[in-house]
Amino acid sequence: MQVRSILRILGLLVAVFSVALLPPVVLAWIYGDGGAAAFFLAFLLSLFIGFILWFPNRDRRADLKTREGFIIVVMFWVVLGTVGAIPFWMPDNFSLSFTDSMFESFSALTTTGATVLTGIDELPHAYRFYRQLLQWLGGMGIIVLAVAILPLLGIGGMQLYRAETPGPMKDNKMTPRIADTAKHLWYIYFGITLACTLAYWAAGMDLFNAVGHAFSTVAIGGFSTHDASIGYYDSWIINLICVIFLLIAGANFALHFAAFRGKSLRNYLHDPELRALLAIQLVLILICVATLLVYRWYDGVGQAVTHGMFQAVSIAITAGFTTEDYSAWPVFLPVMLIFASFIGGSAGSTGGGLKVIRVLLLYRQGVRELNRLVHPKGVFSVKYGQRALPDRVIQAVWGFFAAYALVFVFIMLGFIATGLDDYSAFGATVATLNNLGPGLGSVAANFQDVSSAGKWLAILSMLFGRLEVFTLLVLFTPTFWRG
Amino acid sequence: MQVRSILRILGLLVAVFSVALLPPVVLAWIYGDGGAAAFFLAFLLSLFIGFILWFPNRDRRADLKTREGFIIVVMFWVVLGTVGAIPFWMPDNFSLSFTDSMFESFSALTTTGATVLTGIDELPHAYRFYRQLLQWLGGMGIIVLAVAILPLLGIGGMQLYRAETPGPMKDNKMTPRIADTAKHLWYIYFGITLACTLAYWAAGMDLFNAVGHAFSTVAIGGFSTHDASIGYYDSWIINLICVIFLLIAGANFALHFAAFRGKSLRNYLHDPELRALLAIQLVLILICVATLLVYRWYDGVGQAVTHGMFQAVSIAITAGFTTEDYSAWPVFLPVMLIFASFIGGSAGSTGGGLKVIRVLLLYRQGVRELNRLVHPKGVFSVKYGQRALPDRVIQAVWGFFAAYALVFVFIMLGFIATGLDDYSAFGATVATLNNLGPGLGSVAANFQDVSSAGKWLAILSMLFGRLEVFTLLVLFTPTFWRG
Ligand SMILES: [K+]
Ligand SMILES: [K+]
């Protein structure tokens, strides 16, 4: 294990990250409502931490092996989550306990969007902005890791996106060098965020809120600068903008990358995962709107359409924004949407959950078995696009699913042990492991009333979700540390 | 499709089944508390139904193909479930609505053990006995189907038990002729039931109740002749007898078969599934007892041990007997046991759930993926016993798991649509799909308050569980009916 090379990389990351603590300082100065000291001290502290990690190891530029790749990916989230918590924890006119600071920071960075705060509208602008910024940076991290790094580690079928897959990857082979890929992903991510900001701004948000909400929309994070979330604006046009950008951010960024490099939109049309994602969202929207209309839940068709569409996409794609308390919706709508969050966004998007492509492959494996039962001698393959997938990839997806289910059960039992009732424990597990944000029962709105142990378990669960379970799980195996 | 050959077989089945309606007539005569007319009329009616199905087709002895095998297996449960409902429905001094009769009959026959009845202690002896008998017959049907027929149909990895598996099958190849296999399974089933009856009798039950409870114990059915279930006896020795026979009935009957033929107990020791089953039960017992002791839930260690042991095994192995209201137990015990019922008994046992062997294979596939992540070039196989399993079998297990999960979600949403709250809907789905019996929330004790639509959905769910999901699901595919 090349510990010093890993420390060097983490040091650089923390140093770069510390720059993100400066815009809140500027905002605190502009608005004069506090937080300047906290953020400036946090900036100095994290710059210092980055320096002492990097400086002694600055010459350690070794080639890293797969094993070190896992450590770096896990440490990426753990170290940045911890450093990101500093401003919340710094004593100022606003500050949180250590546990709450960590919870808020990890929830933001993993784009989960669960919170321990209320009265967000009254917080200093520096903090309101910083929470959104953390989500945006987290989203950027997810994209780079998921598109450029996790496939190299072979996590849960993601290698599908390396070379085996047809469509975008085959026609426009992704630039092999990670740095170059990351740079282009950054342009795309920035471009989509800019477009989203302008759209929100044009639709009536002020610039501060437009930027803030664009950050958490593109990151599928779900944090808002208002307690009432997107519902604060009570505007169907803002709802629609949010839904459109959630769908864009819920697509695989490798697709955006291919479109960007190839200057063609054809790839989008032929991607099976994107088509499945859009089909799922459409069906959920139709079910929600139809049910709300049948139950006459809102006065007029317009309300049912705008809220039905918004909440269906926001929950199913694991954003967690709200315009309405969907958990009070009639019959099976709340549970259906919560279940849909297990599907989540595409692989290589900022969404959470199992990811559409995996669910698609699981489904097709089920269909294959049915066909095999009827025709025991027949040869059936699981297809993705035009191509039969190698069994190796499908096995990886199944292994992923088994691990996800197992981790889910243990975390849910853990939440019950920390004092949550069964229903809330289920909600808390879905909210954190799927990186969704809002839960059910006592954690439907926030995690304020959860015990400290429960909050730490939530942090672990968010990490499991964001690290595609396996990346974290592998560190607990003896094989990993042997030899 | 050889419809007339199928009708001939079903006719024979119904005719044979009708004999089961005579013992209750005798009991009604002995105890003189009613039901004689209902059961005798039901006997005549089902004998007649059997005859008109069989007689016109009595010469149709064709070789049946796989496809007809599926139809027969599904119809086995549907037809016997329906015929079995007749006595409940017959107007007498006790009778149920059509829906309730069907519910009670299917719940009994599929060894689910959910009920719409209360005041069971006051029912005529004929009915009290008949419910137990239906479970016992259902258990027998499960064993024959699971050990001798489903493997031929290739359902969800059960082909593992045909020829591919080491251990009992290899050393003592199962008699290829189904009829012969069935005969020997019957001896074994009868022998275990007899032993269980004598044990209960010796422990203090009267003969009527000893037979009745032996029926539902060996069938892992969970029905009792008392509202208070096994708790009625308040006897640690009866609890222990029940647990021991549940574990015997929760083992694969192919193991008992091999031991019976080979006169050796060695097979038991080397069977990976049985070892896993016992290990799981032991861990659950320890967790339950320890938690009950820590929380000082009962006065004295004895109570905690007997109830902890009893409820852990009864719920986890999907029997559903109760001595205590375990759903009120502290922290995560209720949810843990409910989750454990997803594992259930062994394949080829009378237990429900996913079955131990499948969960074992899913777990090992998860471990294989972890190993592959650390050593991407390594070759890892999923082992069962000493032998690496062919990928084909593992894929079948995964397909099964995907179908199970999908069916679970749809049935749970269906229960919500029929008016159950989210928590009870989850409980009702677990109770029926896992063939467990008792649920949570409003269906914790019985299904009396469920709407008619909900009861029919419960029947469908029990069938899905008992038919290993795929057997029923395959009938809904276009491929099945084509050509
Ligand atoms: K989220
Ligand atoms: K049962």
From TrEMBL, chains A, B:
The keyword Disulfide bond does not apply. Its main location: membrane. The chain crosses the membrane at residues 38-57, 69-90, 136-163, 184-203, 236-255, 276-298, 331-354, 396-417, 456-481. InterPro entries: Cat_transpt, TrkH. GO terms for molecular function: metal ion binding; potassium:chloride symporter activity. K(+) binds at residues 111-112, 220-221, 318-319, 435-436. The keyword Phosphoprotein does not apply. Keywords: Cell inner membrane, Cell membrane, Ion transport, Membrane, Metal-binding, Potassium, Potassium transport, Transmembrane, Transmembrane helix, Transport. It is found in: Cell inner membrane. One of its GO terms (cellular component) is plasma membrane. PANTHER family: TRK SYSTEM POTASSIUM UPTAKE PROTEIN TRKG-RELATED. Belongs to the TrkH potassium transport family. Low-affinity potassium transport system. Interacts with Trk system potassium uptake protein TrkA. This is Trk system potassium uptake protein. It comes from Aliidiomarina minuta.
